[in-house]
Records
---
Amino acid sequence: MNIQTPIEPATSVIDLNEIHITLGNGASEVHVLKGLSLNIAKGQSAGIVGPSGSGKSTLLMVMAGLERVDQGTVIIAGTTLNGLTEDQIAAFRGRNIGIVFQSFHLIPNMTALENVAVPMELAGDPLAFTKAEAELIAVGLGHRLSHYPGELSGGEQQRVAMARALAPNPAILIADEPTGNLDSTTGKQIADLLFAKQIERGMTLVLVTHDRDLAARCQRQIAIRAGEIDEANSTLVAI
Amino acid sequence: MSASTGSLGGQLALAWRFSLREMRGGLRGFRVFLACIAIGVAAIGAVNGVARSITTAIETEGASILGGDIRFELNQRQATAEELGYLNSLGRISATSGLRSMALRSDETDQALVELKAVDGAWPLYGAVTTEPQMPVADIVSGSGKLFGGMAPQTLFDRLSLKIGDRLKLGDIEIELRSVLVTEPDAASDGFGFAPRLLISKQALKATGLIQPGSLVEYGYKIALPAGTDAKALRLAAEEKFPQAGFGIRTRDNASPALSSNIERFSQFLTLVGLSALAVGGVGVANAVRAYLDTKRGVIATLKCLGGSGRFIFTVYMVQILILGLLGIAIGLAFAAIAPTVAAAFLSGVLPIALNQTFFVQPLVLAAVFGLLSVLLFAVLPLGRARDVPATALFRGEFTRDITNTRWPYLAAAVIFGAIIAGLAIFTSEDRNIAISFLAGLVLAFLVLRLVATGLAYLAKRAPHAKNVSLRLAVGNIHRPGALTPSVVLSLGLGLTLLASIALIDGSLRSQISGDLPERAPNFFFVDIRSSDVKAFTQTVGELAPQGKLQTVPMLRGRITKINNVEPNAENVPASGRWVLRGDRGITYAETLPENSSLSAGQWWASGYNGKPLVSFSAEEAGELGLKLGDLITVNVLGRDITAEISNLRKVEWGTLGINFVMVFSPNTFAGAPHSWMATLADKTATNSDESKVLNTLAKTYPNITTVRVKDALDVVNRVVGQLGTAIRVAAGVALIASVLVLAGALAAGNRARTRDAVVLKTLGATRRTLMTAYAMEYGMIGLATAIFALAAGYGAAWFVIERIMAMEAKFDPATVALTIIIALVVTVGFGLAGTWRVLGQRAAPALREG
């Protein structure tokens, strides 16, 4: 199966159609996403907002191919994820999707350089370390290449995480509360860097946040409530 | 295509790189893992290495141990002139004679059974005799008339309070002890003796008058062959030339088959015990791998998010586990490699040969293979589950959710690794049936232990609500999710079961030997009673022990040469029954069914029967040899082949130590054949002083009759059993150490998990005392349940070994029961509380902040 379908210009890079997800079993069963449909265009930035438990993170995971839908179709970067195996999705994700987490999730026993090189090493890129070094320099951490995560500040760790997400030059950058674990000054620096890189590379940026100011910096805001798009509180931007 | 899903080489190279990066965090958390593997490998490697050092010593020193390049043995008769001519033509010859006899102090105040060995001037052909003071053998044994010289080991000097120059009465002559025998090169090929050696000359033996027709004498003809002679070919030629002679022929490459076989059997048993240490350690491996992977869930989820495939993640962590496994194996092999050298020092006084202290590769390879397979077996399931850590955990923080489903390829791999271990254990075993039973028991114990843990949790869940807070907490802890119950029961259960079963077997054996066996056994055995002396001997014994019961039976020696006119092949017989075919066995004839036996098939011959020769065969041995009524048995007695038909089978009670024979012939079979008699004397009222009187009087009156006091013989057996028991207990101790290590590891992992519980309970008002009491009760209940299982399973295993394999009566020893329970409670409660004490000392704030 070809999972490297080229992305058509000026088309939606994220295309979710009538997706349903139910998590848990029995008494703990929750219908998290209820027939949600959403298109996000190439190069667009979208902020997903909503109260806790509304289904924001689950929606993000669906876009990253980390959560399978019970119903509906998921087309990311031109590839339908529904029929792919877990390993095919992992390989697809490594090439096409960069992820930035609230808790950074750097690998503690690897240096900053090695952490950034991981997705490219996994993709079999022989220039993994050269690109990783360039990416770290680009986020202002050229002097921290051989430092371990435990030796870096929170802001520096999140820069490393961003460099790791950006290094394979993915079509889509997904960020889950990217400033949630940072103080406001550092958080603003990270957000500035995030949007600068998105514009610079023409990537699609999807971020989940509780921070209204951060969401407001996106071209589009998507409000989620009880597993559905809250049209009234969402701003729609034409492709 | 990505590297993580690409070619095997590329994936392995990448996995290797990632593994090394992951291991920068150090080996913390793997100490138990390393110890478990090292202990199991060391145990198996050491046992096999020591066994190999003994067997190779027997092989390399073959000529010295055998006393020649080839050795011909005859029982109860010397070689004929024709045979001797042939033997002399082969090379340089040395003739020896061996028999048991009584030796009296010259003042007739004390006597002892001795293993008499008479040598000629050529002895020894190989090896050196060491004596103290060192003197030529010829000078030591020289003599004439009624006085000859001799030598004996220090034990005989001590036993009879003798010194150099003292004399012993032996038959019709006196032996002057001129030297202490320190090393006798060919002692091992003569087998382990019950009594100390007394070494004299052939001329002296002749002068003793001890040798009569039918005397139990073993004549050995040891020959040094010209260089380049093929000893094996020579053996075949001799067997062909003298098919009826009844020669027992051994060559230097098989100098002591009985010793080699015993060592191999014993080492096989200890290997199985070592294997259970590895199985116990395997639980520790699984626990350590699971605990390690639990700490790596975040990394695994991150790698998945970054494009890592499940297979790649499995490979990364498998490489790490293999590296650690190999490190553990290397540590174990280092200990195993020095074992032969250490054993040589310890066994120098126990074995009749000097051990080979070289480096043995094969046992180490076997131990390493067992170790590696155990790592794979116990790591593959947790590793297989690790690949299923969901990447979504990074978003939801679900790092603690249990993954219970294991993909079938990993289950299949575990089954394959288990099957290879079992196959290897069985294939390398001397007795495959025992290996199969042992492994089946091990697997069954594993399964039942799982059930015990589940049952205990079930009972705790269904238990009525306790009023006592600590008890309620303890019962709740036993069944709640993530409880320590399964890991503690499994960790401790196997080691404790092994210890209990070995202690029970040992206890049963000891109680047989030192308990009621002497009650049931006769007080004395008498052998080599001349037919002409039987009447007078019976009268003397009747006067000495009027309450005693004397039983006399004719005694011949013969070996089975054919079964249904075909030479039997010992290889086709189960190991437990091969002894019947090995060399000469005592045989007898009887008019009526002997005591201590009952007819199980066929008919006993009529009184005065005079038809074709008939034989009664022991039912158990007949079963092992595949014999049935009507089969023909040919035995070689005094060089003559005699064929008899099996007319009945007898159930023989071997355990009573009465006179019993595998084969009892109809009296007409040996009509006219010269033979001696043997007898037993049973006198339950006899005191030590009565026995000494019997011994002393008979030794003086009938110097040619060999008297064995059962108490003395049992002391020897007790000592041997004690030495074997020590080795077995050491091996079982290794399994228990592995068990305790695994338990400590499991409890440590459990304590990490319950730190937060303790902190929360403390913030809610629980005192340290309440919590300690609760934990003590919890560990106590789990420990007690494990001990009860271990006792039940251990007794089951011990019963099987004692009753089914050894055909003895199993005893339930209360001391073992108490010991097992005490060990279980001390270990679980002790280790558990030691770790919990630290847990209770944790500051609340950090734990609550994490939560």
---
Amino acid sequence: MSSDPRQPSDAARDFLAEAEEIVEELGSQLADLADMAEQGSWDPDLLNAIFRAAHSLKGLAGMFGFALIAEVAHHAENLLDWLRMGKVSLSKQVLELLFSSAELLTTLLRACSDGTLDQHQAAAAAHAAAIAACLEPVEPAAETPILEQLGLSETLMGALTEYEEHRLKENCAKGRRIYVVHASFELTSFDQELSALTDLLKRSGEVISTLPSVGENIDTHIDFDLLVGSDRTEQELRATLEPLQVSILAAGGGQAAKAEHGHQAVPQTPPAAGAAAGTTPSVLPSAASTAPEAVSAVEEPLTAKSMSRTVRVDIGKLDELMNIVGELVLAHSSIANIANRMRTEGFSRMAIELGKSAKGLERRLSDLQKGVMDIRMIPVGQLYEKMSRIVRKISREQGKKIELKLFGAETELDKLIVEDIADPLMHIIRNAIDHGIESTEQRLAAGKDERGTVRLSSFQKGNHVVIEVEDDGAGINVEKIKQKALAKGLVSDVSGMSDREALELIFLPGFSTAETITDISGRGVGMDVVRNNIAAVSGMVDIETWPGKGSRFTIILPITLAIIKALIVFCSGRTYAVPITSVVESLILIPDDIKTVEGKEVISLREQTLPLLRLERLFRIERIGCNPGEQYVVVVGAAEKRLGIVVDDLLGQQDIVIKTLGAAFKSLRGISGAADLGDQRTILVLDAGGIIAEAMRGTGS
Amino acid sequence: MKSFNVLIVDDSAAMRSLLVSTLESLGSLRIVEAPNGFEALRMLPREQIDLVLTDINMPDINGLELLSFIRKNPLYKDTPVIVISTEGSSKDIEKGMALGANEYLVKPFKPTQLIEIVKRFL
């Protein structure tokens, strides 16, 4: 164990970052494997990649002192090793075990950051036992083909790992021919050429091993021997590789009966394989060192730089950077202010110059701000991967056939928002499958396709990103919702409640505690938490439903939280910021227009009723500094859910950096954080979504 | 004085930085990192490598293949190579030693073990 798990050291942070990446990758590879297994065959390379993930994780966790994680990874690795070596077959049960391994590892990594790793000993032990129960060979290993008969060189055989040897045997057992393809590449460009050759070979069979070797020109060239198993005859393979000037040595094999044909995936050979080779001569210059194409390599100068051009940065560092940018923006606005004041106070020449410099600074600042922002942006497609895994998992567990359709994966969103939205989104999707999509029988009876569809789409709309989750299930039964809310005592009267208002009940605390607590939706997380989590990133969520046809959850998020434009308002002697993204419009309030409906103040805005909210009432503060003059209404909200916030004055727009208030104020509704105005004043930032929710629950409560 | 160049080959960035920070305590070493076998093959001719530390289990070109290449190539054949593997892959370590690895380390190992072994080649 690390000395103080609560404060992970730099090294431990390195480990966690990488381990999380590995486990995430592991999860999506497992999902691919499950898909392939469903179709009856899978790619050994994929299985080996999954094995490697578990193996690397074991080694890493061991080195960094996380023995429990190393142990769990070790058991998963064992199971995967048996699988890839063909000692156990890929049954549904084994797949489940692998999925649960990945899940347990995710849990453990999270526990690492919390310092609660020790609490998971029992789960790890149960996991180990489950795997041990699985590790019984299905049948004694079949007689292994005699590899010596292949006449492969000792050098080649000597460098094969145990697994590669196994793959060689497997290929022989399947009656494939074994070839050694020899190629010589220039040192400057061998990596691209080698991967092009490997890709080509993979279309004809399996590349079992890639052995770098020594050719004639050791100063300028590097040679490779690729050990390949293929169904193709030597002539066919030669024809495929013709343009490449590689030499092919047929090692043998191919005589054995193809007993288990179709058991394992043979990469399909696209008809264009040969043609593709013909069209890529520049990527694959001939092996001869004097080939004219090799000149193209000159463009790429000798370099010891790493091939990877990406840097992994802790999001905390980006936040810090963003904060500094935010403060610079504030510093800039106070300079601009000074310039303005100077102009009005008669220092015109200097004021103009200062104003000019401030303008220049503003442009650079906005470039800088955009640059830092761009680093933070990631495509929501990363979320999609997680979601498709979850959908596969739930549909497997529930025996419902679900098709997940994904749209707009390229839509970009702040990394932090993507992280924070993952859980609420997952919960909404779980709900859609759990409660929305009917069972296969019900669907067939309703004349629907037995396969339910969940559509997940994202798109940018102004300064917002909209994420929609749409299912083609039964829709939400509004009457049931009302009855349930009544039964739970959440409301006292539902008569005269519109469907839209009734749907809002779902978001009340205490509403969605499912009767049957399943592993899926019944994690004690209700829709109130979902809404709060979305509000925490200044987002809003809305539901629409069509009986018998399905429901749609719409999540509206700001593109970034780092710096936002806000409307600064003044009310009852206090200043607040309202994120401009939630402001629809603002208008002057004419006192005579105010009507009272059911004890609530409303005005009529373009023939629609707009409920009003007075901040001093919401926050229960005394009304001071009563403005004898005009008051304003700031209209916030989206679509049908709009609300007019009454304020004494509008002070203008400003860029603000929202800082959280800390855990102590977490339960505070209607406030999303605080911001510094640049003149040493700190103000509260209103959370429009939260205020609307609060207002809907009834004023004065 | 000519510097002593160590090449570290491992596809895990966290592992590489752990190895680097451990070796840094030995002082006066110049450490070159490669995230995979390809990169290692590119670096060999460019850097005068005096010692190679390589993980065995890597995609595309694994540590054994890299080792085999080093031993066959007259330019590098005398460069000492330490192979690193994870417990449970004893066969691969055996192969590594047969291919001419000078030493091996099995994860998890202690920093002092690494230092002890590397010191022998300085």
